[in-house]
Amino acid sequence: AAESMFNRPVCVQVRCQGCEERRLNVRVSIELLSVSNPVHKKDLAVRLTDDTDPFFLYNLVISEEDFQSLKTQQGLLVDFSAFPQKFIDLLQQCIQEQNKDIPRFLLQLVSSASVLDHTPVFLNVVETNPFKHLTHLSLKFLPGNDAEIKKFLASCLKCLKEDKIKLEEKLKKTEEDLTRQLSYTQQ
Amino acid sequence: AAESMFNRPVCVQVRCQGCEERRLNVRVSIELLSVSNPVHKKDLAVRLTDDTDPFFLYNLVISEEDFQSLKTQQGLLVDFSAFPQKFIDLLQQCIQEQNKDIPRFLLQLVSSASVLDHTPVFLNVVETNPFKHLTHLSLKFLPGNDAEIKKFLASCLKCLKEDKIKLEEKLKKTEEDLTRQLSYTQQ
Q1: Using CB atoms within 10 A as the burial measure, which of B5, B11, B35, B149 is most buried?
Q2: B105-111/B2-15 β-pairing
């Protein structure tokens, strides 16, 4: 079971090796995954996708144990249960600033390769103050393999089919309603 | 470039090793693929999918050279250019018979495994007359790998997104049209 905490496109600054910086709308999805084997616990799953590119997929899954090393390594002061909301707060700050010329909070997607292609990327939350760049958080994502992309696309297809059925029903109902009103008015 | 010749669900009889026979609706797509490398030629691409199962994908691509061995092996009397239409004629005959208790023409999907799962399958067009079963055609399909399923799902997603946009536009236009007519009638 997955509990969705955040799912929306955010503007990121893409930095690849030897390339010009560019902007990209990346959909960030944050979910808590219930894992009950061997014991009941929750993993944090973060997914980066691009609504315009079906093959763009980067994944990060953080277990409570993973989080301990992330916490030490990046000097975080929150615990695992509070971390998702703090991450979302940081994303919200970036979203608030994303249309400004000089945003104070910025999301960077950094790759050591020359293009975003089958290599890990870092998603960094960077604050720029008059003195320096401060990296609040840096998360490493792995590119999705074919099997993961396949599963992701199947879930998109399922949602889209449901949307389409709802739209068809709404269209039918709208036509019926208004036609009925029209015939009633004309009497 | 691909030229679509046939694309619709047909009822097939599934036969796996040691399993009970069952019916399945399989979408058969037949396309001519233009290949211009090294010389200009056309390949016949046949795809089996299941509208209710995004991971169900079997492929067969027949080049003109492949066809020569198929022709010899199965004693076919048509040439490569006439083959696709003959195949479609056979499918149509199966479709016409598919709701009958004892269909004269039947499509079989045969696997040597115990389930349809990552093993090749044969699609057979079988005629049953009072005397015997006659196999008119037997084509071997390979299961799609993750990369092929990924590409197929991305193309489904693209079509479905276009359908959804058209539906949204139609709903908007219908609402506007009928609201205008209604207000006109009420004046």
Answers
A1: B149
A2: parallel
Kindly give, in sequence order, each residue whose CB lies less than 8 Å from that of residue B64, ignoring residues fewer than 6 positions away: B41, B42, B43, B80
| pLDDT given for residue A184 in this prediction | 82
- Under DSSP, the state recorded for A76 is -
Mutation choice for B interface testing from A53, A150, A165, A183 by most B CBs within 10 A: A150
> Residue B120: which pLDDT band, with cuts at 50, 70 and 90?
very high
C-alpha count within 13 angstroms, C-beta hemisphere, residue B162: 5
Give the residue from A26, A66, A84 showing the smallest Cα distance to A50: A26
ipTM topping 0.90: no
Listed in order, strand segments (DSSP E) in A63-143 are: 105-111, 121-128, 133-143
In the 8-state DSSP scheme, what is residue A75?
A: T
pLDDT of A90 over the 80 cut = yes
C-beta separation of B24 from B14 below 8 A: yes
Query: Residue with structure tokens 């320096």?
Result: A132
B106 to chain A, minimum CA–CA distance in Å? 30
CA distance B89 to B78: 13
The three-state (H, E, C) secondary structure of B28-52, written as one string: EEEEEEEECCCCCEEEEEEEEEECC
Residues B87 and B54: their CA atoms lie apart, in Å, by: 25
Note whether B168 contacts A167, CB cutoff 8 Å: yes
Query: B-contacting residues of A 132-151, CB under 8 Å?
Result: 145-147, 149-150
Q: Report which of A164, A146, A120 is spatially closest to residue A54, judged by C-alpha positions.
A: A146
E strands present in A41-164: 41-50, 53-62, 105-111, 121-128, 133-143
